Amino acid sequence: MKNHTRIDRCRLSRKKQYTLSLVFAVLFGISIWGCFLLAQETINWKDSWHNLLHYGRILFLQPKRSDHLPIGELAYSLGISFALSILTTIGGAAIAFFLALGAARNIAPLAVVKIIRIITAVIRSIPTIIWVLVFSVTVNIGTDAAVIGMCFHSIAYLVKVFSESFEQINRDTIDALRACGAGFSGIITQAVIPVAATSIISWTFFRFEINFINAVAIGAAAGSGGIGYYLFMAGNLYYDIREVGAITYTIFGTVILLEMLSLRLRKGIKQH
């Protein structure tokens, strides 16, 4: 009986995969067809491909920093993006830790868990850049809106992953601590932190990487400064493709270094 049930589940999952693949293929085909249909009278495809290759060659093969952006200013703008990502990550992680305790089913009442999870799911469904633009209406465009918007989304993201880490703790352990008279703080210090500390550190650093990328994008969109703002200025004000390439390579190099640091951190956590 169990074997038949497993076979039926496998068939259902395969049907779902085939259906999703078919839907994506049809939508992709319609999108491509629509692009050609709309642009066949207004776009010269030969010139478009020529310009793409020409400017792509300049962007990636001839990067050069101009006089608009001294090396000291470039380093300073990169530091602003780093500071923004660090601030929003630490602030978001601190708030998310306590909210995640209320979102873990083995720690908090089910009603509280559902409320927190629904609210954070709604927040996560909206991109970070949209939250920044929403807060820029009330707080004004700048660093304040960027910090609040990025923290807002970071909290919702970390609540999910932190609560999943907390739920890996055996409920019997928590019940035993409560039976011994341990309060809420005792459960956190004796059960939650020792078990979930490595996971919390790993997920927090992963969110830091995401926030750095968001800080670059938001620097251009919300005027919060940082290296993203200079990337926007080089491409839209000065029309300097070479400087865009230089800034892009700087961002690429920074992201690669962060990824290498993240891998080392995770290896160190696993060893301990």
TrEMBL record:
Pfam families: BPD_transp_1. It comes from the Bacteria. GO terms for cellular component: plasma membrane. Keywords: Cell membrane, Membrane, Transmembrane, Transmembrane helix, Transport. InterPro entries: MetI-like, MetI-like_sf. It is a multi-pass membrane protein. The chain crosses the membrane at residues 20-39, 74-103, 115-139, 184-206, 212-232, 244-263. It is found in: Cell membrane. PROSITE patterns: ABC_TM1 (PS50928). Residues 78-262 form the ABC transmembrane type-1 domain. The keyword Transcription regulation does not apply. GO terms for biological process: transmembrane transport. Belongs to the binding-protein-dependent transport system permease family. This is ABC transmembrane type-1 domain-containing protein. It comes from Treponema medium ATCC 700293.
